[in-house]
Amino acid sequence: MNHLAPEVRTTILCLFAALAVSSVLTLLIQRVKPDRDYRELRSRVRTWWTIVGLFSVTLVWSPTATVAFLGFVSFLGLKEFLSMTPTRRADRRVLFYAYLAVPIQYYFAASAWYGMFIVFIPVLMFVWLPTRMWMIGQTDGFLRAAGSLHWALMITVFSLSHAAYLLAIQPAEGARFPAAYPSEISMTSAGPGLLMFLILVTELNDIFQYMWGKSLGRTLLTRKVAPLVSPGKTWAGLIGGVATTVALAAWLGPRLTIMDLPRSVLAGIIIGLAGFAGDLCLSALKRDLKIKDFGATLPGHGGILDRVDSLIFTAPLFLHFVYYCYG
């Protein structure tokens, strides 16, 4: 636990306190309105306990355990994606290499091997998977199969692995901006704070946009952002959600990470907008596949991809933003 700065430990405790309050409120609401069905809400809160519990245990345990946990999330996401998209019988052997890419990509993240981390899936797997496919000799549906498989790897493994790479980030001496260390431990272990910031702000951005859309989206700025993709998304939800996310990032960034106030505000803008785009992108994919959720792994939430849809876009953008500023 010595690798965790005090601000990270405090944030973990605050998360559990917030979950405890949510559980109590859920019970009170059920008692006040016993005629209404709150089973989905209770399932959501219970699942959040599981998610936060597992993530916190691995983060407290060690950075390697956290990387392994995130790699397992990628594996489940890839499995979900491939179970929902049509694959050819001839590609069964190719899928083995797609799954094999998960531990290799996360090994590069854990070892901070940036050169291989950044080219392994976009370049090497991009070349190898279609090569292995033409070696099988099945040409019918080749384009769709190759495109689907590579996109699956990009969003479920490559994108999410950027969150794991944050654990290896350590400010360089000649960085563009000086690091604003919030504590002494963060001078040797800045990654956990950055990872916690990314995940916390991304998930709360989803909640903020939902709450603003439900409150003001019915009276002000009611116009839909993408009515054919996600009819429930209004401009009120987008603008209110991003503004609240930026305010949260501005407050949380200097206290939890190496970012100063200007960089924290920029990070909030990036996460707010990218999270919204990632959510809509996965919504478009679900509409194309004619499904409501990617799975039922997380009761009350759907599948793994339903929970990390925003993170798929925010993780790579945030890592490269931090890498540009402090790498």
Task: Give a quick set of tags describing it.
single chain; 327 residues; mainly alpha; 2 domains; 11 helices; 72% helix
How do the strands and helices of this protein lay out in sequence?
Elements: H1 6-32, H2 39-61, H3 63-84, H4 92-110, H5 114-136, H6 142-165, H7 191-215, H8 235-256, H9 261-289, H10 304-308, H11 311-326
N-to-C terminal Cα separation, in Å? 25 Å
Please, how many helices? 11
Portion in strands? under 5%
Given as residue ranges, the uncertain stretches (5+ residues, pLDDT < 50) are none
Helix content: over 70%
Total number of β-strand segments? 0
| Main β sheet profile | none
The whole-number mean of residue pLDDT values reads 91
Shape descriptor = globular
Element string (H = helix, E = strand): HHHHHHHHHHH
What is the alpha-carbon Rg in Å?
20 Å
Tally of individual domains: 2
What class, by secondary structure content? Answer: mainly alpha
As an assembly, this protein is single chain
Architecture overview:
The protein has eleven helices and no strands. The protein has two domains: 62-168; 171-326, no CATH class. The protein has helices spanning 6-32, 39-61, 63-84, 92-110, 114-136, 142-165, 191-215, 235-256, 261-289, 304-308, 311-326.
Sum this structure up briefly.
The protein is mostly helical and 327 residues long.
